[in-house]
Design goal:
Number of domains of chain A: 1
Number of helices of chain B: 9
Shape of chain A: globular
CATH superfamily of chain A: Acetylglutamate kinase-like
CATH class of chain A: Alpha Beta
Number of strands of chain B: 8
Helix content of chain B: 25-40%
Largest interface: A-B, 93 and 99 residues
Strand content of chain B: 5-15%
Helix content of chain A: 25-40%
Oligomer: heterodimer
CATH architecture of chain A: 3-Layer(aba) Sandwich
Distance between the termini of chain A: 51 Å
Strand order of the largest sheet of chain A: 3-4-2-1-5-9-10-8
Radius of gyration of chain A: 20 Å
Shape of chain B: globular
Number of helices of chain A: 9
Largest sheet of chain A: 8 strands, mixed
CATH topology of chain A: Carbamate kinase
Radius of gyration of chain B: 21 Å
CATH class of chain B: Alpha Beta
Largest sheet of chain B: 6 strands, mixed
Structural class of chain A: alpha/beta
Order of helices and strands of chain B: HEHEHHEHEHEEHHEHE
Number of domains of chain B: 1
Strand order of the largest sheet of chain B: 2-1-5-7-8-6
Strand content of chain A: 15-25%
Order of helices and strands of chain A: EHEHHHEHEHEEEEHHEHE
CATH topology of chain B: Carbamate kinase
Number of strands of chain A: 10
Distance between the termini of chain B: 35 Å
Chain lengths: ~270, ~280
Amino acid sequence: MAERRTIESTLSGSSMTGSKETLDYRPTAVMPDVKVVKIGGQSILDRGRKALFPILDEIVEARKLGIQVVLLCGGGTRARHIYSLASELEMPTGVVATLGKYIPMQNARMVQMLLAKHGGIYMLPDDFEKLPLYLQMGCIPVMSGMPPFGYWEKREEGSRIPPHRTDAGVFLSAEFLGAARAIFIKDEDGLYTDDPKKNPSATHIARITAKELTARNLPDVVLERVVVEYLPRAQWCKELQVVNGLKPGQVLAALKGEDVGTIIRA
Amino acid sequence: MSNPTPRGDDGRTHINSRLMRESLQNKDVLSGTDSERDLQIFPDVSLVSIGGQSIFDRGKDAILPLVAEIVKIKQDKTVKMVIGVGGGTRVRHTISIAVDLGLPVGGMAQLVGAMEELNAILLNTLLAPHGSMPMQRDHFWDLPLYFDAGITPIAISVPPYHFWEPPPDHGHLPAHGSDFGLFTLADVLGMKQVIFVKDEDGLYDKDPKKHKDAKLFGKITLTELMKQFPEDNILDQELFHAWKNAKNLKRIVIVNGLKEGQLTRAMRGEDVGTVIIKEDARG
């Protein structure tokens, strides 16, 4: 029988499935100066003009200061609506994740229209290779926060909602770009011991590690659980910052690198 | 839904639905979306995955007999299959260079698909005269048309994790490769089985190329296999992680593509090579 024709390399003998890999890996950051920022769907975009406009003003101001910003949009209530219908119909998680792509895309297009006069440019998920151009031109790239997994999304035990949604997309984008921090603009001051919209006695957490957060096993968290799970394994993005976009000045402060809101560390 | 867009008293606009106002991180909310089963879209289709290192890297002597066997299988017009291919040694070379350069794991994941695609083009070139076509990434809704016309679709095997490949659990390599990609494709579409065509008679407890005393698994349940999971596995680990939570796919078969007839028998539903069964899957 014909032999395998193998190209010699450090991995040529590897099955690539085992856990014994020992490689010399010195990671290179792709675009470490970029601020990767999420605008929440339900928390911000669904509130409309009143919530969104002041946030965009602060982002434009940051851009004028020379801060490089990439915006990723969440889904919100329309995503929940389609998830609800799809769940009733017992759709596989991959189908639910595919349905979930459309709403953040709509939201990104809305934000682009609002930012167009300030250099807002709509970007497709696989367009990271064009980021250097956009940012050097002074643009504010806007894209969907949903990772492109779609039909290939994994099922999580006990749920058919895709575990990787727009928070995960924001974290994974920051990690790919080599940004040290991913910023999430929401309608709360950050992390609480429970959902503060439902439980008035929930208290604010300013700083916490991913490990501590996981150990608390909270019934509800402000960010998708996979993000907290991935954080300790990250090469670059070792901090998640959650800020309240409804409070003036918080977004600009976060973009300037100030520690406002909640910071979750690896 | 009497009032489709109530303005909530919290300043946010909600659409009436079971998940309205809910945090999708809440464990109770999440479990409310679940049920015993997933919808099965194409339950009579088999997915055939042809190994990169094991078959394609061996060249003509391994590829042509397998193509001839697939052509023969296709003569039975009731047989429905989708084919995917692995990338083999060129994937390993790509990643080894990328690791040396320190590229992020998402960058590596973005690069490797091109190497699998080369094998897909080779295969399609050989199968096209007998009816085959490369299928675009997620054009699943064309599948009834393909089957009706007797065309075998060749699917893209690497999943679109691309720049968003999650940081791996251990090591530095992307975890979501072509085995995982094809498994997920079969599971999300509710297919009958996945047949992995490799260059061994199935799955062994140790790498049979390195250990003469390696023991072949015959028919085994996923639960049993996980208790004695081989460290050096012929399939991606991520496939097994994902299969544990999956509801649809019941059967994975690993056969030797260098031995004529094994794929044909597996396609007929016979127990050949290693057959792994997930008991609680819908199947």
